[in-house]
Amino acid sequence: MVKMGQKGSDNKVCDNCIKLEKRKKELANSVMESQKELEASITDLKHQMIQSKAQQRKNVYKEEIERKSKALTRSIELLKKIEETNDEKYIEEYKALFEKLKRESFH
To answer: Which string of b and e fits 42-71 if b means at least 16 CB within 10 Å?
Structure first.
């Protein structure tokens, strides 16, 4: 028997060689398709990761805004109480809140 691509006296190719070449082509196509699927999967994962990071940043900013909003609301309440009562405890609480906000703003 003569292998595919070889020339012989009667130019025959064995059945196993034909099947082998066909199988090699199928495997090559399968590998290429798998690579495309993996690349698409990796791209999708990257996109999900980017979205996740963006969502995490949004959550951090949201929490920061909520925290500062509560502190601002509390400071307004304290200022009103200070104005109404001129009580030393409200003044001290306001000072402590102000210092806390100042420290957090610079970190």
So the answer is: eeeeeeeeeeeeeeeeeeeeeeeeeeeeee
Contact 4, 13 (CB under 8 A): yes
Left if phi > 0, otherwise alpha if psi is -120 to 50, otherwise beta: which for 86?
left
- For residue 99, what are its two tokens? 């210092």
Structure tokens at 13: 């190719």
Residue 17 has a pLDDT of 87
Q: Is 78 exposed, middle or buried (0-12, 13-18, 19+ CB in 10 A)?
A: buried
Tell me, what's the pLDDT at 5?
Answer: 59
Model's pTM, two decimal places?
A: 0.52
Is the distance from CB of 14 to CB of 1 less than 8 angstroms? yes
Residue with tokens 């951090």: 60
